[in-house]
């Protein structure tokens, strides 16, 4: 029976038969529902941007978080556990995603919120923060937290060349950058994890003894270079072959593919951009840090 015959399927589809009406009604009712369910479950859920506060003890992380929350100085104490707060960007700061919106867009008037997680900076408790930066395991039962950026707070009055404070700060920063590098290089797929920018927030810049951002940058780079040279000599596993030892050295070598002395620019190979911006959490000079956070949104 041809499709053009009076009893053909195409003719019946356009005829006022009861079966045709029922099938059409079912299609109209259920197809939109099915499409909605499929698209809703396949689309990624929208979550607020999240930023991680790291840094040695006494650098001012908790004070900075308190200022983000209340826009005022508040006396704080040394944190011993991780704390996450939901804070709002100042009205004078525009997220990068909103820079090209029309001034009449009502979305510009809605508050822009972010999650900021403060972590303990004491050497015995740093593993809490570093645990969240470890490379993503393909069969891990617990998902690795995702951060849109890391704010590494330092005391700009204490990182003078040759001091133990500079050494301890650089060691902590070295470990953070190395973990971010491993997250990138250990990706099991051709699609690498999202880039994780790092802001070195040089706190207490209002004090007379504070170093400028450029000097802090060079001092940290020089100290990290000393640390990576020292650690590369010590990364050896007993009983391993020479080839395995070379792999171990390469695994722990910060700034993969970078020749010469260490510079933060080497981290771009691992999709890690490092910025150094001065400010002061106690006096409210945090505009530069807010602008950096807004540029990652």
TrEMBL record:
<keyword id="KW-0256">Endoplasmic reticulum</keyword>
<feature type="transmembrane region" description="Helical">
    <location>
        <begin position="20"/>
        <end position="40"/>
    </location>
</feature>
<dbReference type="InterPro" id="IPR027417">
    <property type="entry name" value="P-loop_NTPase"/>
</dbReference>
<dbReference type="GO" id="GO:0003924">
    <property type="term" value="F:GTPase activity"/>
</dbReference>
<feature type="compositionally biased region" description="Polar residues">
    <location>
        <begin position="86"/>
        <end position="97"/>
    </location>
</feature>
<dbReference type="GO" id="GO:0005525">
    <property type="term" value="F:GTP binding"/>
</dbReference>
<dbReference type="InterPro" id="IPR019009">
    <property type="entry name" value="SRP_receptor_beta_su"/>
</dbReference>
<protein>
    <recommendedName>
        <fullName>Signal recognition particle receptor subunit beta</fullName>
    </recommendedName>
</protein>
<dbReference type="GO" id="GO:0043001">
    <property type="term" value="P:Golgi to plasma membrane protein transport"/>
</dbReference>
<keyword id="KW-0472">Membrane</keyword>
<dbReference type="GO" id="GO:0006886">
    <property type="term" value="P:intracellular protein transport"/>
</dbReference>
<keyword id="KW-0378">Hydrolase</keyword>
<keyword id="KW-0547">Nucleotide-binding</keyword>
<dbReference type="GO" id="GO:0034067">
    <property type="term" value="P:protein localization to Golgi apparatus"/>
</dbReference>
<keyword id="KW-0675">Receptor</keyword>
<keyword id="KW-0342">GTP-binding</keyword>
<feature type="region of interest" description="Disordered">
    <location>
        <begin position="76"/>
        <end position="105"/>
    </location>
</feature>
<feature type="region of interest" description="Disordered">
    <location>
        <begin position="235"/>
        <end position="257"/>
    </location>
</feature>
<keyword id="KW-0812">Transmembrane</keyword>
<keyword id="KW-1133">Transmembrane helix</keyword>
<dbReference type="Pfam" id="PF09439">
    <property type="entry name" value="SRPRB"/>
</dbReference>
<feature type="compositionally biased region" description="Acidic residues">
    <location>
        <begin position="241"/>
        <end position="254"/>
    </location>
</feature>
<comment type="similarity">
    <text>Belongs to the SRP receptor beta subunit family.</text>
</comment>
<dbReference type="GO" id="GO:0005794">
    <property type="term" value="C:Golgi apparatus"/>
</dbReference>
<dbReference type="GO" id="GO:0005789">
    <property type="term" value="C:endoplasmic reticulum membrane"/>
</dbReference>
<feature type="compositionally biased region" description="Low complexity">
    <location>
        <begin position="76"/>
        <end position="85"/>
    </location>
</feature>
<dbReference type="InterPro" id="IPR024156">
    <property type="entry name" value="Small_GTPase_ARF"/>
</dbReference>
């Amino acid at each position: 029976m041809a499709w053009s015959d009076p009893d053909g399927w195409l003719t019946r589809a356009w005829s006022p038969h009861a079966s045709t009406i029922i099938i059409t009604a079912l299609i109209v009712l259920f197809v939109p529902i099915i499409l909605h369910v499929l698209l809703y479950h396949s689309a990624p859920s929208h979550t607020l941007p999240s930023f991680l506060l790291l840094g040695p003890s006494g650098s001012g992380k908790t004070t900075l978080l308190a200022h983000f929350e209340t826009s005022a100085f508040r006396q704080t104490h040394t944190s011993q556990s991780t704390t996450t707060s939901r804070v709002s960007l100042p009205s004078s700061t525009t997220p990068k995603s909103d820079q090209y919106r029309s001034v009449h867009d009502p979305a510009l008037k809605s508050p822009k919120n972010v999650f900021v997680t403060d972590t303990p900076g004491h050497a015995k408790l740093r593993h809490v923060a570093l645990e969240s930066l470890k490379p993503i395991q393909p069969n891990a039962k617990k998902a690795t937290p995702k951060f849109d950026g890391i704010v590494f707070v330092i005391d700009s009055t204490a990182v003078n060349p040759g001091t133990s404070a500079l050494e301890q700060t650089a060691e902590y920063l070295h470990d953070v950058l190395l973990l971010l590098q491993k997250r990138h290089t250990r990706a099991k797929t051709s699609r690498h994890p999202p880039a994780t920018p790092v802001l070195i927030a040089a706190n207490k810049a209002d004090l007379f003894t504070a170093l400028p951002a450029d000097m802090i940058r060079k001092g940290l780079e020089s100290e990290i270079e000393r640390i990576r040279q020292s650690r590369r000599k010590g990364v050896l596993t007993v009983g391993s072959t020479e080839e395995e030892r070379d792999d171990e050295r390469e695994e722990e070598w910060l700034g993969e593919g970078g020749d010469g002395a260490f510079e933060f620019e080497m981290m771009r190979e691992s999709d890690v951009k490092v910025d150094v911006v001065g400010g002061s959490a106690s006096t409210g000079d945090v505009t530069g840090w807010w602008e950096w956070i807004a540029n990652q949104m």
